[in-house]
Write a sequence for this structure.
């Protein structure tokens, strides 16, 4: 419970003939945390299995199809019964159906856009009363139409050519139409281009027809294309419904296959052999050996390596189910390293207690409890966090019972809620209690630190670096409460011990331990802040109801609801962060090093995804 | 009518909170900015950033404790 799972470092050596089988066996075992091989003089890294390129291409295509269908990624169960080759064929066929339909969709859409553009041009021409058809069979002249910003262009036009023109206002601009003889066309076009006038193209139009006939034809065509588009979309929708699960499952299966195919990239390889180094939980060692020997006809070598003092070993925290949610805090901060005590269990004991002590209200606790139980059902992905909050809420109710508070009220009607300690009156007692809790917590931390040091640096170092702080604390306590000589003596002794145990740095940090303990006064301060707010809300509400009248009572209810909701939100954030901080800063600094890396076994990780 | 001493006690409690709150706010502003910056680079730093950001809150909590002690003078 207090130690991470024991790991064994192994090196697996086999011939490349068995590579594929070993990989799939390791994948199924799902216990080996592979240490990536770094290329060195002796060994290069391995090359992926040959099917890896096909697989990764397939993943990209599947992702595209999934994006096209806007499918939500969800946890799927993978069916391993279908052979991979058959599955790949099936995927290819279905992808082809979908992509060809998608291409059709894109084509139709672009046709619709171009028809829309032509229709817009026709509207302009119809309004201007110009019919390009009139000019199309005349071989000597040409019609140019475009929008001009102002009339300036006309002077120049008159100057350089004999073309006839017309200018009329259209949607805030000037619609310029020029009828020009064929040999002057180029000259005039250049002039118009220089004035920033882009010409309308009439290529989509039927020259045989008049503008209005053209308009009719285009509108008919547009309707037809739109019908076609909706037919394609309907077919895509039916595909979406029938293929959605298939695509998601197929992707999962292909991802798994690809992960296996690319695994040799983490291995070391010579011409004929491969080498995998990694960590296995020691309990699984025999199983790994048995299974690998079986699939390779006993031609595999498994070496057990010793784990060095400084070596970074993957961490799998090993806590009872009830404590496990609190591993979340370790992951949020830093995982314990392999050689030290895993503080999750202590966090489980003290985090909800501190939280409850600060919030300390039966009403708030009940509301939170219901809220977090509901959220836990609603958002299973954050279950660990909500489990923590459920514990915290239960402690809030208990603390609320001890303080005799219900939504800030200490009495309901005539009934005084019994309490062990009234927070609003006995502030000094609360402060002293907080400091005592703090000192106890810090001392617990020092003892854990002692155990850590004892294991790694021996008794002498453990005493000088951790017990010295305890001596310092007892000296300070004696000095404060009795003001006698022993206090001074103990303080002096502690200073000397610290100097030996932690050097000059220890002396510099000497005052910090008192700051740490005083820091626990937040247990009282944050609680009081929340109490004061609750009391103020209640006072307001009571005052309003005294005034009488329906309106006043409604206002009182509103104040109660809004006020307590806000206070509860504050009361979630404050106590949560500060309780966490007391652990991370004050508690952990007494023993915790951290820096562990998470144990990620090679293998199918569906269970992890769902977590 | 409260007497001047009560008023002064209230005022000093207010100053204790106000001063420490401003100090904590200034400190948290700087740390928060830096923490967000670090998180943009590496998202896993959220936990550490959050904790570092609330560290100066100790200042205002001490302020609150002092204020409560001052109010305690009033009896």
């Amino acid at each position: 419970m207090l130690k991470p799972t024991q790991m064994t470092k192994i090196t697996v050596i086999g011939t490349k003939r068995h590579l594929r089988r070993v990989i799939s066996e390791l994948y199924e075992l799902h216990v080996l945390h592979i240490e990536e091989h770094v290329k060195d003089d002796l060994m290069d890294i391995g090359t992926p299995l040959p099917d890896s390129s096909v697989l990764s291409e397939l993943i990209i295509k599947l992702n595209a199809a999934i994006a096209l269908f806007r499918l939500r990624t969800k946890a799927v169960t993978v069916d391993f019964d279908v052979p991979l080759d058959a599955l790949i064929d099936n995927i290819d066929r279905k992808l082809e159906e979908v992509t060809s339909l998608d291409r059709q969709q894109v084509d139709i859409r672009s046709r619709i856009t171009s028809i829309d553009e032509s229709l817009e041009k026709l509207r302009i021409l119809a309004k201007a009363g110009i019919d390009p058809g009139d000019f199309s069979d005349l071989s000597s002249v040409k019609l140019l139409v475009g929008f001009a910003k102002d009339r300036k262009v006309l002077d120049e036009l008159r100057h350089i050519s004999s073309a006839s023109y017309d200018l009329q206002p259209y949607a805030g601009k000037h619609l310029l139409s020029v009828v020009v003889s064929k040999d002057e066309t180029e000259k005039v076009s250049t002039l118009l281009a220089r004035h920033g006038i882009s010409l309308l193209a009439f290529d989509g139009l039927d020259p045989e027809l008049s503008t209005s006939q053209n308009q009719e034809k285009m509108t008919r065509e547009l309707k037809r294309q739109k019908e076609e588009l909706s037919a394609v979309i309907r077919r895509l929708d039916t595909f979406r419904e029938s293929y959605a699960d298939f695509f998601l499952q197929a992707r999962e299966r292909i991802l798994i296959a690809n992960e296996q195919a690319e695994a040799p990239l983490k291995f070391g390889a010579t011409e004929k052999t491969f080498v995998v180094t990694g960590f296995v939980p020691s309990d699984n060692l025999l199983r790994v050996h048995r299974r690998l020997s079986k699939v390779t006809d006993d031609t595999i070598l498994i070496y057990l390596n010793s784990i060095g003092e400084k070596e970074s070993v993957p961490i799998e925290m090993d806590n009872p189910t009830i404590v496990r949610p609190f591993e979340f805090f370790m992951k949020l901060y830093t995982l314990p390293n392999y050689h030290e005590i895993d503080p999750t269990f202590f966090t489980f004991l003290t985090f909800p207690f501190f939280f409850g002590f600060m919030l300390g209200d039966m009403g708030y606790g009940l509301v939170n409890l219901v809220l977090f139980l509901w959220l836990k059902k609603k958002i299973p992905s954050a279950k660990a966090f909500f489990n923590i909050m459920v514990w915290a809420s239960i402690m809030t109710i208990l603390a609320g019972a001890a303080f005799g508070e219900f939504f800030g009220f200490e009495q309901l009607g005539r009934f005084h809620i019994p309490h062990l300690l009234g927070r609003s009156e006995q502030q000094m007692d609360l402060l002293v209690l907080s400091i005592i809790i703090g000192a106890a917590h810090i001392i617990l931390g020092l003892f854990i630190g002692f155990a850590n040091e004892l294991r790694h640096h021996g008794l002498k170092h453990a005493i000088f670096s951790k017990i010295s702080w305890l001596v310092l604390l007892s000296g300070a306590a004696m000095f404060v409460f009795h003001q006698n000589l022993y206090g001074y003596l103990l303080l002096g002794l502690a200073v000397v011990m610290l100097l030996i145990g932690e050097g000059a740095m220890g002396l510099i940090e000497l005052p910090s331990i008192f700051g740490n303990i005083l820091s626990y006064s937040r247990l009282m301060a944050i609680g009081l802040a929340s109490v004061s707010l609750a009391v103020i809300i209640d006072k307001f509400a009571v005052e309003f109801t005294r005034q009488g009248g329906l309106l006043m009572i409604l206002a009182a209810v509103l104040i109660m609801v809004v006020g307590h909701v806000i206070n509860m939100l504050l009361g979630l954030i404050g106590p949560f962060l500060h309780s966490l901080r007391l652990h991370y800063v004050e508690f952990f600094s007494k023993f915790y090093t951290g820096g562990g890396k998470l144990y990620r076994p090679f293998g199918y990780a569906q269970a992890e995804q769902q977590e | 009518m409260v007497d001047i001493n009560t008023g002064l006690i209230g005022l000093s409690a207010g100053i204790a909170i106000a001063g420490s709150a401003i100090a904590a706010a200034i400190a948290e502003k700087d740390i928060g900015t830096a923490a967000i910056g670090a998180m943009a680079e590496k998202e896993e730093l959220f936990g550490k950033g959050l904790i570092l950001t609330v560290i100066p809150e100790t200042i205002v909590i001490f302020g609150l404790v002092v204020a409560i002690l001052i109010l305690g003078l009033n009896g």
User: Anything to note?
Assistant: Chain B touches chain A through 15 residues (CB under 8 Å).
